[in-house]
Structures are given as C-alpha cells and as structure tokens.
Sequence to fold (423 residues):
Amino acid sequence: MTRHFSEIPRFKDVSQNEWDDWRWQLRNRLSTLEDFEAILNLDEKQRADLQACMGKFRVSVTPYYASLMDPDDPGCPVRMQGVPTPAELVVRQEDLKDAVSEDFDSPTPRITHRYPDRVLFVVTEMCSMYCRHCTRRRLVGGTEDIVAQEQIDNAIKYIERAPEVRDVLISGGDPLVLSDDTLEEIIARVRAIDHVEIIRIGSRVPVVCPQRITPELCAMLKKYHPLYLNTHFNHPKEFTADSKRACDMLNDAGIPLGNQSVLMRGINDCANVMKRLCHKLVQYRVKPYYYYQCDLAEGTAHFRTSVAKGIEIAESLRGHTTGFAVPVYIIDAIGGGGKTPVMPNYVISQAPGQVVLRNYEGVISKYTEPDDYVEPECHCEDCEADRKRLGVAGLFDSDTPTMQDVWAARMQKVVDRKNRMKD
Ligand code: SF4
Fold:
C-alpha cells in the first residue's frame, strides 16, 4: 500500500508545490542512515547493516521513490532497488567493474561506439536516484558536477566525424537531471549533425522522479524529433498517478516510449509479476522493449537469477499475451559482446523444404517452404555498391571471411575509431 507523502512524518510539512518540484526532489534526496531511518522502520540489525554498507557505492533516493517503499518489509521491490544491503559488499570472482566493457569501445571520453551505426553518449554521471542494481555503477555518482565542456565538445566532434552514426543514445547517469537549457544545448548540437537520423534518451526519471517531466521539458524535446525515450520500470508497484502523468506528457509530445527492465531476484523473477509489469507498461503507452539478465557488475550478485529463469519467463509471455507487450530477453555479453537475445527454441526440426515448429501451447506444425525460391539478384543501393555485411551476417556473403577475420575486423574498428580523434 503506497503512502501519501503527507502521511510520512519526514515529509508531513512539505507543501504540494514543493513535492511536485523536481528540483526540490533532487535537493532533498535520501542519502544517509538518518534519512532512511526517518522513513523506514529499522530494527537494530537492519540499522547496523545499513550503516555497514553505506559508502561503497553511491546512495541517493528521491523522496518520491522513497514514499513508495514499504517501511516494514525489507523485501519490498521498491525498497530493494533503493536501499543498500551488505550483499553489495560481496565481490564474486565473476564480477567486473566495467561489466559490459563500455570503456574498451570508447574512442573518446563519454562515447561508446560498439555497434555499426549508433553510439552511446554519456552526458552526465549524475542520477536522480542510484539504483542498487546499476550496471554503470563504476561511473554514476562519481561526480554530480556538470561534465567538462571539453569532453562534451570532443564527443560531439567524434559523432561529426563518424558518418555511419545514424542513431545517438543520450544517456548517463540520467540526462534528465540536467537543466532544460543544458540538455537542449547538447541535443541541438547532435540534431544539427546531418547524418544523425534519430536521437534516443535513456532516463529513469519517469519512474523515480516523475516530477521532472514538465510541460517546458516536453516542449523543448519535441523540437528535436525524431526523438525516442527509453525508461526503466522494474515492478508493477512503480506505476502511480505521477508516473502515469509523466508518461502521458511524453507520449502527448510525440515521443515514443520504450522500457528496459532488469530481471532481478526477489523483485521481478516471477512470470506473473513480469506479465503484470508488461500489461501496466502498455496501459501507460510504454512499449516493453527488453528485459536484461542482470549484468556481472560488482556488488550485484545477490540480484542475479539463472538464465533458465529468464527463458522460462519468455516462454510464459510469448503467445500468452499481446505480442506487442512481450519484451525481448537480453544478455549483454561481457567483453563488449553486446546485447544478445536469448529465447526458447520454436524451431524444433528442419529438413530440406520443411520446417517443424511448435507454438506456446505445444502444438507442433510444419511449414512447407516454396520449392521454387531462388535468391534474387538484388539491385538495392547497398547491394549495388557491394557493401559488405559485418559480423556473423558477413559470413553469408560470397567471399566468406573466417571468424578470425571477423574478430580482426572488430579490433581494427576500435583502433580506427580512436584514430578519428587524433587531430
Ligand atoms: S538511473 Fe540508470 S544509470 Fe542511474 S543508477 Fe539507476 S540504473 Fe544506473
């Protein structure tokens, strides 16, 4: 049961205007033992545990998100995402600082260029709340100062020099903690680059600080279409009138919304919870896009599930609910392997001309392939220019490279991209 903020002693004197002001929310974040003691009912052990694990990774929770926490239940899915536990202090052998090797694929600070036609642009290290499961925790909260202008300038210079980049993901930290003016300056510079077709923003504020979504922000963002926003709901308890208002405003500004969840032990590792989450998302006009296997980031082992659990959830969603409401299960592979979809196998056998499939009910059927299909000679612009495909898809091209060639080409790309910044 969610409490109205006025029912929480700590916030009883806060006016509605203050509560609705995102700057007030940021200024009044909870970050000390005393802050949490004021909103949670902690026994001696819980108090000692909380004290013990403060300080290793940044802690900060908006009053809004804290108001969704169950004061008596340490297993509350909202509380688990915001309040640290001693489990964070455990570092396992498989844990990594940079869990998905973003730094390896960084040609210049603030940019990760891993995939062929898109880059990640980290414009701030600050978030409105620091999630206990964050994969970028090596970086976030390091500084809440504005990123050095020189780094922003160099990042934009890199995008200008990379004509293959058609998609820029502006992320952080959380880019929506920046002021409208600062954010607009960055977005406008990216939008002015001819070869950038789309801009995406990654932000958790619709979930943890929905007050940040203001009419002024939406009016600014809609000037830079096509612009998309991916957010990060993990549990049905995170849907409130405030988060709905935030999503509605963004949608009404023509900004398509997607959601990336993290599969987490004790929070959403249940097919029914995940289905309710997806149903809530589509009601809020947010497309369930991915759910991630929890990365091997340091201090997050206690959240990880088996991969089998992720596949079981996929099995429980596909066919059982609207296809549009089914997110793709992703493992972000270590070493810069990138986002790898994982799913149950629906093709159960094959013979020349025939494919045997099974559906979600276990019904087995046969698809008969056309016996007169021959690969056409394609005359599209890319085929005419004999543009080679990359990676595994490149193995299908006529002068088939070996996997060693594929790996060598990947390493060469890392070097070439860094060289772009040499003068
Ligand atoms: S909002 Fe995103 S980047 Fe920030 S701490 Fe949470 S998961 Fe990490």
